[in-house]
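Attaching the record inline, Q. Sequence:
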Amino acid sequence: MSILSQQIKELFDSQLREWEQAKTNYEALKKVKTRNFSFGSFSVKVQFNPARMHSASAKVDAVSIQERKCFLCPQNLPEQQKGIPYEEEYQILVNPFPIFPVHYTIPTCEHTDQLILNRFGDMVNLAEELPEYTIFYNGPKAGASAPDHAHFQAGIKGFLPIEKDIYPLEKDVIYESGDILIYAVKSYLRNFFLLRSKDKERIKIYFEKLYSLLEIKEDDKEPKMNILGWHVEGEYYFCIFPREKHRPDCFFANDDTQILVSPGAVDMGGVLIVPQEKDFNKITAADIEDIYKEICISDEEMQLIIDKVKQI
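Structure, as predicted:
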């Protein structure tokens, strides 16, 4: 176990002893309901997690963001919430509204926009220094409930299906150069790219190349995306999910077709979070397919990007 892993484990244990809200929510997490939906060679879990209601339904328009206090700024944290400094620029906090059995939020100390391009290297470093965890990033219009404050999250390994699915999953090598492989995955309900290498500098370089090929839509500051990454047996794995939309149409429905789901990186990793029990009970495999298809880029858009990657 790395020094940083040991430090955050001690932080987690102490926070659950001393912070009643965190203790209560992690205890409640042990009792959350889950359903498993099989899609042939892989499955998607649906988790009913009422503690995630605030995050799932968060208003992220510019006016709403300006009118609320940023809950990731140090001066606005609950008195009981403590953190571990990381690289002078970040602090590691226990997430009091967990999805994972051990779940951290890693915000910058400074209030600055949630943008990945110049911070991806920090994400890679975190994956290396926290090998027991999957590190993830939600874009400002792709699942982040705090789009105005840069942050990552970390969840204990063994929870997300994608961590195991990625190895047998059908995937096409679309680029290979030295110690870097770029795969396209089109058989997982969610179109995405996988960067794999033992060289973290090459992972960073080729992420930037891939980023440059993604569309930045009007009024956005970066391409909509989610990222999941981890480090195992000397190799880095980073899954890049380009996004078409922030939320599916069913989120906004005013009738019995409504399903309050606001997918982020965890959902892309195979655990769909729903904060309402009625949605948990009624959701179907067809609903899951529709939600993923709607928010992820189309097969046609995926192919356009693949063609560009091959010309790098």
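The two ends are 38 Å apart (CA to CA). The chain has one domain: 3-309.

More tomorrow.
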